[in-house]
Amino acid sequence: MCGRYATTRSSGELSALFESSDDTDGLLGPDHNVAPTDPVPLVRVSPEGHRSLCVGRWGLLPHWSRSAAGAARMINARAETVATSRAYAGSFSRRRCLVPADGWYEWVRRPDGGRQAYYMTPRDGSVLALAGIWSVWGSDADTRLTFSVLTTAALGDLAEVHDRMPVLLPPERWSSWLAPSDEPERLLVPASAERLAGLEIRPVGAAVGDVRNDGPHLTARVPAVTPQELTLF
Fold this sequence. Notes:
8-stranded mixed beta sheet, 4 helices, mainly beta, 6-stranded antiparallel beta sheet, about 230 residues
């Protein structure tokens, strides 16, 4: 999975969709071009035991990290190794979250050396819940809630765009993902064929490649390029 996605729903809409409290303090706005270390919404279980919509920064920092410099390299955790990785295992075991998204971006190389961007998003406009893990990092003066998105081998038509995809959680699995579990590996169930068929693989413009750009035009469809004219990555 590449390092960009979109999350544009308001905190009020997200807290209703995920049946959570809204603990974002009005800090979030729509973002059509989320990049590593950006602040974005996530849903976790609060210390009081209820679902909480809060603000996290994309790029997990283990509590033992000496600085925040490595956060941009920690945006994704591989499902195949998350349970054994020193950086991720503790969070995977005890601190799992849902990462709301409208869709995510990937790039495919064109014959001319340029790259064609694609936006993967539900055809019906529903919210995606990406499987995530979180950690709190820092001191009292600078405490950050950080997270990573779990990725897995791409399935179906998505494999024509990239060899990885986020772990997608349907609503009926949200509770089990957030709940304590002695065997969290059993929660890493592949997305169903029906779920994957409901995703649109939409060609979009090159503007999304610049992190300074934002706005709904980034997810607008552009003329398609046939897969035969493209090279993965």
